[in-house]
């Protein structure tokens, strides 16, 4: 789902309302009757309003994970999908699913969560007229081609494959077999929505109402969001603190400085410049754990200059010109590992990770790199300009290092340069408008621990996060076959065959696998990162 957007915002910001004063810029405070102290954590403004089906980046997803609970939840230790609001999910053919919703769940405004809460939310997310970025996640449901046609206007308002049976039961009919479909239900796009989302949409966007352990109290863009513990939350994973103040930072170095000064409790992305010092600074209050994240360079395949005959040789040559080992050791201090495929080691072999699948194309071979770039017709325009967002402290360092490596390998000091864009939001908007003229920073944070999630959203034709608009019929066909497989081992094999198509065309250059990193203050205990590299906020205790 989510492009890995590690943006942080303005330093310690002005309190939004008087109730935030106690939680303020420092790390202390109470939650105004919620029973527990509030912690403060670094954050970045999300790209879009917090509609579950319209959020496909990390910062917005972080909040949705706090204020919503869906049919499934991903275990914070293993990432495995476990039942949350789903009392039962039954299928006899991996195509029609009968879902029973648990009783006793409500939204934080008191409205009961029912089967209709899910069906209405999914219909909204799928509808073309609502322009939701994650609409593609509903593409396997019957009738998607009518509510979200590839061309022209939609001819139906609701998905034919969704049907409410009774207050707590609904059925889902897919347009093809998809045995792992229920495992996607922990992704926020599948969250239920209350009636106020539809009846007073503007008010809901200003103050989202969900059914998770936290409720949004207030939010000022560019400043901070305050989430309070919801005392009426019926789940077993209740918040062990009084709330969380998410502070916007445009530079994670500033966030780290605030942490060391006692003005911030938690930094969940330690900047590269601090990695050499963080062990001595924080000791065992520094976390560095494997995460389902891969960093890549994507290409604008919609630009004919990058999609001409032989372009795959140029892209492969550039990949072979990058000394991943040297860059990860020099800049990232054991928080990155050179990538040898397009997934993540977190999946394990059974989940689809295949070390070395990329082969020589992901190894440093400068002589071969020069040869391939020349055979492919040379670099379009004579220069690679790697576009990235400049509002964090780390992207410039690695982009410059990648360019230095490419320049050295190709014997041309001007073959590659960085092309910074001021903010993450502007960066993402330019990508969405298909304005890239060369490779650009990309990455993927898994939504659920399946190889399918690392491949289909990024490379399937017209998939929601296929920002480069790459398209290949063989890849699409193999993904469709893999999704229809009921045997997991066979499905993984087919997905890996699809991944080989990505490799052969070098649709995107895999750079490195990323660990989750965090540092926290002495006030906190029970701090952990889940396999998605996000803090497990509800388990954090504040002294």
Provide a brief overview of the structure.
With 543 residues, this protein is an alpha+beta fold. It is built from 16 helices and 19 strands.
User: Low-confidence parts lasting 5 or more residues at pLDDT below 50?
Assistant: 1-34
Helix content: 25-40%
The gross shape turns out to be globular
Major sheet: size, sense and barrel closure? Answer: 5 strands, antiparallel
Mean pLDDT, rounded to whole units? 91
Strand content: 15-25%
Walkthrough of the structure:
There is one protein chain. It is built from 16 helices and 19 strands. It is of the alpha+beta class and 543 residues long. The strands form 6 sheets. Strands 11, 12, 13, 16 and 17 form a 5-stranded antiparallel beta sheet that branches. A hairpin with a 6-residue loop joins β2 and β3. α14 runs antiparallel to α15 and α15 runs antiparallel to α16. The two termini are 35 Å apart. The N terminus is likely disordered.
Task: Provide keyphrases for this structure.
543 residues; alpha+beta; 5-stranded antiparallel sheet; 4-stranded mixed sheet; 16 helices; 19 strands; disordered N terminus
Topology, element by element:
Elements: E1 38-43, H1 58-67, E2 72-74, E3 81-83, E4 86-91, E5 96-101, H2 115-126, H3 144-147, E6 162-166, E7 169-173, H4 195-199, H5 201-206, E8 214-220, E9 224-229, E10 243-248, H6 252-261, E11 266-267, H7 278-282, E12 286-298, H8 311-320, H9 324-331, E13 336-338, H10 348-351, H11 366-375, E14 384-389, H12 395-410, E15 416-421, H13 424-432, E16 440-445, H14 451-459, H15 473-484, H16 488-505, E17 508-520, E18 524-525, E19 541-542
Parallel strand pairs: 1-10, 14-15
Antiparallel strand pairs: 2-3, 4-5, 5-7, 6-7, 8-9, 9-10, 11-17, 12-16, 12-17, 13-17, 18-19
Helix pairs in contact: 8-11, 11-12, 14-15, 14-16, 15-16
